[in-house]
Structures are given as C-alpha cells and as structure tokens.
Amino acid sequence: MKNEYLERAKEKIENPETIITIASKRASELAKRYKPLVRIAPDDENNYLDIALLEIAEGKITVKE
Fold first, then answer.
1. Contact at 8 Å (CB) between 50 and 17?
2. Contact (Cβ atoms closer than 8 angstroms) between residue 46 and residue 40
3. Which long-range contacts (C-beta less than 8 Å, at least 24 apart) are formed by 54-58?
4. pLDDT on residue 21
C-alpha cells in the first residue's frame, strides 16, 4: 500500500475505519475486473488497494454523511 495515497485519502475522508471499509470493498470490485475510475499506466505497479485509495484521494469515490 502506498502511504502517499493513504495520506491523500485522509484529506477526503477523516475516519480511518471508513477509508478501510470503502477501499477494501472497492479493491474487491477491481479484482473482479471493474473499470478503475482513475487513469493507471499499464506499467504501473499499483495493486487494487492502491488504486482504490487513489480513487478516494482524487474524489472519485465519496461518502454520504
């Protein structure tokens, strides 16, 4: 997991438990071949959790309060 993505995700969602829940559910979807909501270079070594965190960090996935 890339700490940079986690720190950026914390700027969007303050509660770490919420980040974990959302990111893990999204990583599961990505593993099932759902299309990423962010651009990923073909040679990038991000895993599904990294991609999910990046999606949160870029505001592609949000939480309704």
1. no
2. yes
3. 54/5, 54/8, 55/26, 56/8, 56/9, 56/12, 56/13, 56/19, 56/22, 56/23, 56/26, 57/5, 57/8, 57/9, 57/11, 57/12, 58/8
4. 96
Q: What is the DSSP letter of 38?
A: S
- 34 SS3 class: coil
Q: Residue 65: pLDDT above 80?
A: no
Residue 3, token pair as written in the block: 């700490």
Average pLDDT of 20-28? 97
CA distance 3 to 47: 13
Determine the average pLDDT of the residues in 29-35.
Answer: 96
